[in-house]
Amino acid sequence: MPAMRLDRFLANAGCGTRSEVKQLLKKGMVTVNHAVIRLPEYKVNTDMDSILCNGKEIRLSGCRYFLLNKPAGYLSATEDRRQPVVLDLLSGEDRKNLFPVGRLDVDTEGLLLLTDDGVLAHELLSPRKHVEKTYYAEIEGIVTGEDVIRFREGLDIGEKKKTLPAKLVLLDHDAQAIPHSRIELTIHEGKFHQVKRMFEAVGKRVVYLKRISMGNLKLDETLQKGEYRSLTAEEIEGLKRNAEK
Ligand code: URA
């Protein structure tokens, strides 16, 4: 499918979000076959045209990689008969053959990688790779220094083995009628409902959960909930390095 809108081509190649790319076009920084093109909807032939941004040749890599800021209420799946799925948040052209790399619960928000690169997804999800994931969470109850130690030592969440050492960072808490704590937690596994089960193991309940990083990828705070962008070439390289480890 070589014909594509110029703004989509540039965004998919990692030059920026759709609105950043529109600014690049407006400023006359993009040429197609040596002519400056300012129209976002201009159709390019992705196989044949020579497309330069700021004088640098832009190409699409074979596979596609998107970072989504997942809102609550969407299943991490490609389709479902009853509930909206994360792919519903992508435009028709982008969603083809994509799938989410791993799962966030329906009520969890934040960083979700979507790709059509099955090899990379398999490597990133492999339990042997221990890809680091960090979550921001709000917890009912006061999370204590003792919890920090228990998370570091590993917890019994009803699996054969204890969880791997996890880094729990206390951000702050309000000691109101129903006390709440804000924390960040870094884990190296991806067991079903893992963060929620780890807090249950210390008698507390997660009331809000958001993934803020996975390996080298950080949740892009400029993305509103439900928005997504292509990964930059650097981010893709970093992910591939994570997967090789
Ligand atoms: N741990 C959970 O409990 N839920 C998620 O969505 C991700 C990690």
Can you offer a commentary on this structure?
There is one protein chain. The protein has 245 residues and is of the alpha+beta class. The protein is 23% helix and 29% strand. The protein folds into three domains: 3-57, Structural Genomics Hypothetical 15.5 Kd Protein In mrcA-pckA Intergenic Region, Chain A, CATH 3.10.290.10; 65-127 and 216-244, 2-Layer Sandwich (Alpha-Beta Plaits), CATH 3.30.70.580; 133-214, Alpha-Beta Plaits (2-Layer Sandwich), CATH 3.30.70. β11 and β12 form a beta hairpin. The strands form three sheets. Strands 7, 8, 9, 10, 11, 12, 13, 14 and 15 form a nine-stranded mixed beta sheet that branches. A four-stranded antiparallel beta sheet has the order 3-2-5-6, with no helix packed on it. Residues 104-105, 108, 193-196, 209 line the site of uracil.
Mean pLDDT: 92
Q: Given the C-alpha coordinates, what overall shape results? A: elongated
Helix content: 10-25%
Please state the CA-atom Rg, rounded to the nearest Å.
21 Å
Give the name of the CATH architecture of the largest domain. Answer: 2-Layer Sandwich
Largest sheet: 9 strands, mixed
The CATH topology of the largest domain turns out to be: Alpha-Beta Plaits
